[in-house]
């Protein structure tokens, strides 16, 4: 006799290995295109979502966060950390997992790794903002900071927005060389530069994606000219920024959720009432985005829970066509819903019987 869980107890789980399998089956560029559409679709129905700034636990080395939201039909949350010091120990700066559940019953629908999925959805969100705000005819993308997120960012901008020329800079030459090698293998035209000033020169789109947990000036005011669109995605916690304040003062600033971005984003440098525009309003056509070719647009992206919801929703749909998951026994399912104790006791009896059945007889000893 074996102790087998019922079907109601089983929940699909997407491991890192299965996530990689899924991405290869679909193709990374196609994944990024599909995720971009999923993220934008949910931004367009922004009023349907519960919204709250993420719950953050800060420490000397980093931060651990929970990011929940619901559209009233499904609920999702992500657990994620950000520890820049981890690379010294050979660990990821960011690791994550998430869960999608059914609001009507409260039962989980899917559990998934989200380290890879977060990289994909962050790149997709940048692509959404860029598509809405970029100058007409842009082709060149400067990627300042060439860490774990950089290839995903560049590939999303290429697949979604046609930015097929990438100009790279990182303070770590080894990281820049790795990124360049990977992107060239993916078919992009890549240029490596000795300074951020050189990298942004002539670029219509600039993405900053650095990891240091400190107030920093990755871009100075003189580096950002008229008509440029900037994705500032490295600043994502209190005390961590990348842009000189004067850039913000010259830019039209677009954000995900102001209550969170004013705490964590570039605009933490500004007065609490400094005007910003919410990205969902632009995507719904309620307010203008780019008005002219000389306007500087800035997406102050810190990451918001609806984007993780979109990623998990997309993944759950993809599992219908791709067998890239395993089933986990994580929900107790007694024969009688109120008899949880009885289920526990019967399991003990069954376990004892199974153990006795496996013991050798006295004649065999």
From TrEMBL:
It comes from the Bacteria. Gene3D superfamilies: NAD(P)-binding Rossmann-like Domain (3.40.50.720), ornithine cyclodeaminase, domain 1 (3.30.1780.10). InterPro entries: NAD(P)-bd_dom_sf (IPR036291), ODC_Mu_crystall (IPR003462), ODC_N (IPR023401). PANTHER family: KETIMINE REDUCTASE MU-CRYSTALLIN. This is Ornithine cyclodeaminase. It comes from Paracoccus aerius. The lineage of its organism: Bacteria, Pseudomonadati, Pseudomonadota, Alphaproteobacteria, Rhodobacterales.
